[in-house]
Write a structure and sequence with these properties.
The structure is a homodimer. In chain A, helix 4 links the parallel strand 10 (about 140-145) and strand 11. Helix content of chain A is about 10%, strand content about 30%. In chain A, helix 3 packs parallel to helix 4. In chain A, the strands form three sheets. The first copy, chain A, has a seven-stranded mixed β-barrel with strand order 5-11-10-8-6-12-13. A two-stranded antiparallel ribbon of chain A has the order 3-4. The radius of gyration of chain A is 17 Å and the shape is globular. Chain A is mainly beta. Chains A and B meet through strand 1, strand 4, strand 6, strand 12 and strand 13 of A and strand 1, strand 4, strand 6, strand 12 and strand 13 of B.
């Protein structure tokens, strides 16, 4: 938590390092630092889905936009955090009832925040929850678990969400934030043609609150 | 240029792709995409100083903070863009006279924005300019050229700036923005222990303006 320009920032990004939790089958991050005498520089090897990251629509939709084409407007603006750590592991439309109407960006806090080990029954959305989010025209949905969709999934939940242009943020760390309204800033790298990107995601109190 | 939440965003990040301008000696970005049938995923190979990027103090100061320790407050907040495209290539304290007093973050637009090829005489700061920025306690300085310091440099300009905790953004694309006051959001990846990071940098109009 930091204070600046009269507001408080919450960094909801997981630290990226070589032993960071990795989705089974994805590459492990590596940073190889070189001392060139006068300065240090590093070679970075990452997956497009390492650590806290954003899925571009093309991740699951062959003709969907790539990460560099995701509008900044999906990624920056008012956001609601809801706490469903007592729900699940499968989150349904019923669990979202009365909590997401009229909002544009949604982050779901589950029991996974603060966890360092991958488990197959991580919290995730089912198709009814995905349809409800899609029907509400939410343009960005984030979760603190390794994926928005169950392990060994078909991709249906991803496709329902991505088809409406909703971007998906996965593996956030929401352990330090409470339910409520924030401004979110979620910035992926501007990589041409890529299916996703590690991202930095920050929340700040809305000026005038607190 | 995009509009959202009643403000206009300017993306001042260079697109990252395999043929993006690279500082001599640094690795070329590569993205290797794999089609896993159900979805696409990519292996990313980057330098900590690829494309638009942020130098952490440890890049040139052995005991300086790493990129994950740079305060968000240095990276988010009011920012002034000044246009020095008619100056240089070497920018001196005199060129900054009367333009940087009382500000916290500064981006310098030079003749390099919009350029795709590396040249050895790119625009840069000399030690007098670095000292003036340091004396003014500016906490973030950005430039659109490949480095804040001349080619074949000693690192002195970097060290003067970084020693005061000022972070340095290099290789911005400021071709689409005019001189003036903005809010800057400059977010590197949260990589533990690394000397710098590719970053996404966005400016937005300050609410109430225009």
């Amino acid at each position: 938590v930091e204070r600046g320009w009269n507001v408080k920032f919450f960094d909801v990004t997981r630290a990226l390092f070589k032993d960071e939790l990795v989705y089974p089958g994805d590459c492990h991050p590596s940073f190889i630092q070189e001392d060139r005498g006068n300065y240090l520089i590093s070679d970075l090897h990452l997956s497009s889905h390492s650590g806290t990251h954003i899925d571009a629509p093309v991740h699951y939709l062959k003709k969907g936009p790539t990460i560099d084409k995701v509008p900044l407007d999906n990624l920056i603006g008012k956001c609601r955090v809801i706490d469903l750590h007592k729900t699940g592991p499968v989150i349904t439309a019923g669990d979202l009832e009365g909590q997401i109407e009229g909002i544009e960006r949604l982050l779901i806090k589950t029991s996974f925040s603060g966890t360092d080990k991958f488990v197959e029954d991580y919290p995730c959305l089912d198709r009814t929850a995905a349809n409800k989010i899609s029907d509400n025209k939410i343009r960005c949905i984030g979760i603190d678990s390794p994926s928005i969709e169950s392990y060994n999934c078909t991709g249906e939940v991803h496709r329902i969400l991505l088809a409406t242009g909703c971007v998906i943020i996965e593996l956030l760390d929401l352990s330090g934030v409470d339910e409520g309204e924030y401004e979110m800033i979620a910035l992926p790298l501007r990589m041409t043609g890529v299916d996703g990107s590690p991202a930095r995601v920050v929340l700040r109190e809305i000026a005038g609150d607190s």
